[in-house]
Design goal:
Blueprint (H helix, E strand, L loop, with lengths): L3 H16 L3 E7 L2 E7 L4 E4 L10 E5 L4 E10 L4 E6 L19 E7 L5 E11 L7 E6 L7 E4 L5 E7 L4 E6 H11 L21 E2 L28 E2 L2 E7 L5 H4 L3 E8 L4 H5 L6 E5 L2 E2 L18 E8 L2 E8 L1 E2 L2
Antiparallel strand pairs: 1-2, 1-4, 2-3, 3-6, 4-5, 5-6, 7-8, 7-10, 8-9, 9-12, 10-11, 11-12, 13-15, 14-21, 15-16, 16-17, 17-18, 17-19, 19-20
């Protein structure tokens, strides 16, 4: 049996978490904000139409920290504005998407007032009325937070979401943003690290919790048809689901390997949760054993591991660290 909807749900959640550092909330009034895109370590792109004229702006980053920025360049005709951060941040790189065919899925990401990501799943409804000026999404324009980031299911960037004519939600193409950033004074794209994402048709995540063993079928040799599995059927449990990924090239030297397994979900209260693992961490090794390979994790599900300590080497954002995890019994 396949779990297509479950995989889709996990993919969208993973994309939202991975792309969150690209989003900022720009305060424009009491209880009001618009979204912005972290284009580089000191440049924020947003929509011009709703951005008030000011000498400085207060922004909320995805980690909840406040930042200040000053106006850099505005183009009312293109409905684009750029802000220059007073203190640079670590930006993550973006790839331009070529998946703009009508009917293709699109993930619309915007910043909430506290900087955390908000998500809408949409599809490309039609091409924009002006040839080459982007696409129109199948959601009303007033549902779209101006300045939203629109990506495809592989995390490549389609562009910026803006409200269009007749209450439409229009995606301003990536190339428009790049051209505007170049005019503003940033000729290149950010190059710290790529958004972690599967390359193509990702396999289902490996859940480190094996399926429950079915009790024996009632029969002549079964004195108790409700008997449960014996104690030797106990299985170890780490409480985490992992997705094989390729380590971004910029981080290979730091990680010391080219592949690992990204955390896509953590069971509340489980060993991984207690150890502090988070969604989008990349697990590099367990007890010094690489997590790459189809059977790399099988040995950690044996009952003899229950109660033992496992040293987890992981990549979080751009830093490598190590945590300890106590293996428990499958609940």
């Amino acid at each position: 049996m396949t779990y297509v909807l479950s995989e889709l749900s996990e993919t969208i959640a993973g994309l939202a978490q991975a792309a969150a550092p690209l989003l900022v909330a720009i305060r424009i009034g009491p209880g009001q904000h618009i979204s912005g895109i972290v284009w580089s370590d000191d440049l924020i792109l947003t929509t011009d139409r709703l951005l008030p004229e000011r000498e400085g702006y207060t922004l909320v980053l995805s980690n909840g920290m406040l930042a200040t920025a000053r106006p850099a360049h505005r183009d009312p005709g293109a409905n684009l504005a750029a802000l220059r951060l007073e203190q640079p941040v670590e930006a993550i790189a973006m790839d331009a998407s070529a998946r703009d065919a009508v009917g293709s899925l699109a993930v619309v990401l915007s910043a909430d007032a506290d900087g955390s990501p908000m998500v809408r799943l949409s599809a490309i409804h039609r091409k924009a009325p002006v040839t080459g000026h982007g696409v129109v999404l199948d959601l009303p324009g007033n549902w779209l937070t101006p300045g939203s980031l629109v990506i495809d299911p592989l995390a490549a960037v389609l562009g910026m979401g803006v409200d269009g004519p007749d209450n439409t939600a229009v995606v301003m193409p990536f190339r428009f943003l790049a051209r505007f950033a170049e005019v503003t004074g940033h000729a290149g794209r950010p190059a710290i690290a790529q958004i972690a994402r599967p390359r193509y048709a990702p396999p289902r995540p490996v859940v480190l919790a094996p399926p429950a063993v079915a009790p024996p079928s009632p029969g002549r040799d079964s004195p108790n048809p409700r008997a449960v599995p014996a104690t030797h059927d106990r299985r170890a449990w780490l409480g985490v689901a992992l997705q094989p990924i390729t380590i971004p090239e910029a981080l290979v030297a730091r990680a010391g390997q080219t592949s690992g397994r990204m955390v896509v979900s953590v069971s509340p209260g489980g060993p991984a949760d207690v150890a502090g693992l988070r969604v989008n961490d990349v697990v590099l090794s367990l007890n010094g054993q690489s997590t790459s390979g189809a059977n790399a994790l099988r040995g950690f599900l044996d009952s003899c591991r229950i109660g033992s300590r496992v040293e987890v080497r992981l990549l979080r954002d751009i830093a490598v660290s190590q945590v300890s995890m106590i293996v428990s019994e499958q609940p």
